[in-house]
Amino acid sequence: MTQQTPSHAQVVIIGGGVHGCSVAYHLAKLGWTDVVLLERKQLTCGTTWHAAGLVGRLRGDSLSTEFASYGTEIIQELEAETGQTTGFRQTGSVTVARFPDRMQQLRRQIDYARLFDIEAREIGHDEIAELYPLVNLDGVAGGVWIPSNGSINPVDLTTALAKAARSRGVKILENTKVEEVIVENGRVTGVRTADGLIQTGVVVNTAGMWARELGRRNGVQVPLHACAHYYLVTEPIPNLPKDLPVLRSYDDATYFKEDAGKLLVGFGHRIVVPYGEDGIPEDFCFDSLPFVDEHVMDVMEEAMIRVPVLQQTGIRTFFNGPESFSHDGRGTIGEAPDIKGYFILAGVNSTGIQCGAGAGRAIAEWIVNGRPMRDLSSVSPARIEDFQACDAYLQKRAPETLALSYALHYPHQQRHTARGIRKTPLYHALAARGAYFGESLGWERPAWYAPKGQEAVPELSYNRTKQFAYVLAEQKAAREAVGIIDYSPMGKTEVEGRDAEAFLQRICTNDMAIAPGRVVYTLILNEAGGIESDVSVARHSATRFLVSSSTGRRRRDLTHMLDQVRPGEDVRIRDVTTAYAGLSVFGPRSRALLAAVSPDDFSNAAFPFNSGKTVQIGYAKCWAQRLSYSGELGFELYMTPDFAEHVFDTLMAREDEFGIRLVGTEALNALRIDKAYIHWGTDLAYTESPHQVGLDFVCKPDKPIPFIGRDAYLKRKAEAAGPLLCAIKLDDPQPLLFGREPILKDGKVVGSIYSAAYSQTLGCASGLCMLKTSAGQARARLAEGRYTVLVEGKEVPATVSLRGFYDPKSERLLS
């Protein structure tokens, strides 16, 4: 019997793969049963049906690890509820490494597993051979065993989710193509199909390979592109153990899974080609792509060496299926920044089966509760710039994401494709002075500078590199003389109008009733008392303010501010990031330098901390504000792009006189960690409250206009719940920290490193961390106890502080 298309629904889900069915199931489980799922052809017919079905609980970040772990936790419940098997087999997994660097990476993953109570341990040749007798151990340095990993049948899992959703009242309509998502006044109002209109206030785009095109129709950017992805299935292998673990050999770019008496051999490709450059074919349904030998033969040869039985075994199936990959290796999960009620779950980079249940739950919880219930900032749609969702960009970047999936991921490693897109006015001048550029949202930003006569080519390692010394020298100059960094990519948003002050009072925690020429640091909270952003706000006149954000938050902060404007308010908000170039000049001799190139007074009396004014540098007028992310005396200079190089040349003409050194982002990161200055998206996001990160001092709950989230913030502050942000440094000067390392107190895991660097000032690796607190524990006693940090399997003694280790009274900053 044909099911009729309903005229209305609370939620319409578009796409019937594992993600769409997971969202449907979890919405129904939370009590929202007036839900319709629309599938253009048949359930699982896009990517889900041909996924390899590997299940690895330990992922590269905490969010994905949570998603993957949850996916294994609900299997028994799902099977019991539906009677549908999912094909889950917890066979464990063995990962082998050929190279020392890979073993270092794997040891750090073993450390990381401690944070989630996932059993993972290093194993040698004897145990590898015992667990996986088919493997050739020639050239293998060692391995890792994770017993909770395994595999699952993707179609069976999706069928179970769909069956459970149906049993709870969800309508699932196959062969129903969505023609249009209807948006009116910035809100979803309906979905038009060939069979009629469904009125709804919430749409979830889980359309897989089609998600980008579907989103594009409404101006929603979904940065993913399909790529050809290969695996093969052998003929039956006599006496093949059915409980054989999954074997991964990242250095050979291969994985092996027992599959009904056969081996499924998959490839982490080195040669990757995009698929569907002109769009995914209309009739695509359970389709496969042509098998092109040269795309995989080099990897296949390595697979036959690693598992020699393949040399005597026939191939039953060579399979090439399209899978979607994103521009940055992260999914897109959350509400679209410009359309209320338009949610996205897409671009999870070949981990959809592992993470689908957890990601679907996260979207369902957001819809039901009206806000995200966990930190989804790293996968937020609001992080995406328009150019990152265009076809030309994705056809370069998405294949690189797939090619890097099994590659070594070194600290500070940069992408190579689609570079040089956004250059500041100082790019060429900085390149001529030895800049090695990193990339942030397309901006080319110096990460460090090679000395004169040295080529700016990085070494990649988990140990000290040649650029390690360069970064230390940059830190030293900033602490002893003058450092200068290009601030042009920083987000800059103008807020102007008669009601601008009242508007900022409402959205900012600090008191914004400041005089022109003053600058304040402030937080922006959400209704739950979580931190949406931290920004600096400069008042230029009675009706004009300039809000400064970090590079990565520009669009997110702009969108959030636009959303908060009330009808009838005289407030105009516009992005002026590219209207101004910027330089941050800091260090104990920065005042003397600026005084030497300007007729203006930079003394402490005339130019106190948190003030700003127009000054002249050389022949150029600049807006200068006295702030510093380095913790040193410092000034930020903003000028129109046409004067940027002149200002830069004017300063650098005094290079030898004042000991100026150009500073990159790696050195600045170390300097700000010395001071325990936070970075939103790394040290905190919208789930943390100000009291957790020591920022109560910028929250003014008694100001005339209450700030958004005030009551929730006060409640959370009174509850004094953790975890709490602290600074940490290693007592041993040799080990390096890169973030994610577990922290132990008296032998028990109590937190992890969030930001990390090697501090020239402290002479050791240091970082910022979130530490768990016990009920009723006073913050002042948090630093007590014996702390260690796990670094490649070794506990390194560490010291914890409630404040930054460098200049805790900010005497240098305020000098």
TrEMBL record:
<feature type="domain" description="Aminomethyltransferase C-terminal">
    <location>
        <begin position="725"/>
        <end position="807"/>
    </location>
</feature>
<dbReference type="InterPro" id="IPR036188">
    <property type="entry name" value="FAD/NAD-bd_sf"/>
</dbReference>
<feature type="domain" description="FAD dependent oxidoreductase central">
    <location>
        <begin position="369"/>
        <end position="423"/>
    </location>
</feature>
<dbReference type="Pfam" id="PF01266">
    <property type="entry name" value="DAO"/>
</dbReference>
<dbReference type="InterPro" id="IPR006222">
    <property type="entry name" value="GCVT_N"/>
</dbReference>
<dbReference type="Pfam" id="PF16350">
    <property type="entry name" value="FAO_M"/>
</dbReference>
<dbReference type="InterPro" id="IPR027266">
    <property type="entry name" value="TrmE/GcvT-like"/>
</dbReference>
<feature type="domain" description="GCVT N-terminal">
    <location>
        <begin position="426"/>
        <end position="703"/>
    </location>
</feature>
<dbReference type="InterPro" id="IPR029043">
    <property type="entry name" value="GcvT/YgfZ_C"/>
</dbReference>
<dbReference type="Pfam" id="PF01571">
    <property type="entry name" value="GCV_T"/>
</dbReference>
<protein>
    <submittedName>
        <fullName>FAD-dependent oxidoreductase</fullName>
    </submittedName>
</protein>
<dbReference type="InterPro" id="IPR006076">
    <property type="entry name" value="FAD-dep_OxRdtase"/>
</dbReference>
<dbReference type="InterPro" id="IPR028896">
    <property type="entry name" value="GcvT/YgfZ/DmdA"/>
</dbReference>
<feature type="domain" description="FAD dependent oxidoreductase">
    <location>
        <begin position="11"/>
        <end position="366"/>
    </location>
</feature>
<keyword id="KW-0560">Oxidoreductase</keyword>
<comment type="similarity">
    <text>Belongs to the GcvT family.</text>
</comment>
<dbReference type="InterPro" id="IPR032503">
    <property type="entry name" value="FAO_M"/>
</dbReference>
<dbReference type="InterPro" id="IPR013977">
    <property type="entry name" value="GcvT_C"/>
</dbReference>
<dbReference type="Pfam" id="PF08669">
    <property type="entry name" value="GCV_T_C"/>
</dbReference>
